[in-house]
Amino acid sequence: MAEAAVSSTEATQPKSPAISFINSNKGKPLLVANNYVFKLNKTTTTTKYWICTLNGCSAKVHTDLNSQLIKTIGDHNHLAEKEKLEVREFREKVKQRAINETTPIPRIFDEECAKAMLSDATIAVLPSECEMTFPCVFGLLPNRQKSTYHFMFNELKSIALQMQLNFAPKTIMSDFEPGLLTVVSAELATVTHSSCYFHFTQAIYRAIQRVGLSTSYNDDDDVKQYCRKLMALPLLPEAIIEDTYDDLIATMPKQLKDTLNDLLEYFQQQWFVKVPISQWCVHGLNIRTNNNAEGELFLLFNSKYHFLMFNIAFHSRFNRRVQVNHPNIWSFIKILQGEENRFHHMYVQFSAGLGIRQKQAKTIAIQRRIDNLGQRYYDGAISAMEYLDALSFTVAKQKK
Asked: Domain named FLYWCH-type: which ranges (predicted)?
C-alpha cells in the first residue's frame, strides 16, 4: 500500500519541462521551456542561471554547463506567448538560410512559411514583407485576341456567381493593349477604367528611343524637359490636357519643334486619336500605377477585402519565383500553391489589423508636391502651363 501511495504522489508531480535553445536577434542564447523564453543571467563553475525575458517576472531555470535541466524556480506572472516564440523560431530559420544560401530572401520567406504550417494567430504577428495587394486570379491566356478577353470576363462572372459574389469592380487599371481596352469598355461599360501611368511614361520613352532621340534626351536639357512635359500631361485635370498640349506646341521654339517632330506626331496620333484622354489621365486617382503588379488588369472591388488582379505578363516578384521561361506544369502548380499560401498569410495579417506598408519618404514627398501644385492651380496661383512645367520635374528619368 505504501508503494502505491508513493506512485500516486509521483503521478501528481509536475513533469520537468523539455527545454530547447534559440538565438536572440543579437546572437545570444535563449532557453525555451513550456513556451516561455529565458535569457542567461550568469554562469558559475557548475551552473547556468536563466531568468525570464519579461521584466518583472521572477521565474527562473537552472541548468548545468552542458545545458541539462537542473530545476525550475517560481511561477510566471504572465501567459506564455506561443505565437511570438514560433515567430522567433521562424525568423531564425529564415536568417540561417539567408546566411548559408544564395536563395533570394523573399523566396526563403515564402518557402519557410509553406513548410511551417503556422497557425493563424502566429501568421498575424509575422513580419510582413508585402504590400496589401491580394493576387487572387492568374489568367493564363493563349493570346491577346478580343474573343479571348471576352471569354475571360465571362468565366470570371460565372465563377463569381458560383461563389455567391457580386462581380462589380469599382476601378480598373491596365496597360494600353488595344484588344483589352475595347473589351473592357464592352464588358464593364460603367466602371472607371484608367490606364497605368508607369506604362504611359514607358511608352513615351520607348517612342523617344524609336525615333532616335535617346542621345538628345540624355544630353540636351531642353529636349529632356519637353519630353518630361509630355510625360507629365496625364497628371493634369482631364479638361485642360488638350488645351495645355496645344499651348505647349505653340510656345515651343522652332528648332526644338523640328527636333521633336517625329515624337510629336507619334504623341498626337497615339494619345489623342487612338487612345482617348480619359483613358490615360490619372489626375486625382488614388492608384496611379499598377507597377507593383506589372500586370495587364487591376480591379478594385467594392467589398472591404476583395481585390482582384489578373496577371497575363506576370509581375516581377512571381517571375523571380518561377526562375525559368517555360517551367513544367508540376513546377508551375507548386509555385501557384506557394502563392496561395502567401495570399492566406497576407489575408490573415490584414484581417488582424496589420496596416499597409508605409510609403517611402521619397514617394510621400513627390505625392505631396503633386497635391500642392494642384491646389495652387485651383487657387489661381499658377497657370496651366506653369502647372505642367512644375509637374514635369516630378517625372523620373526612365531607364533604358
From this structure: 21-78
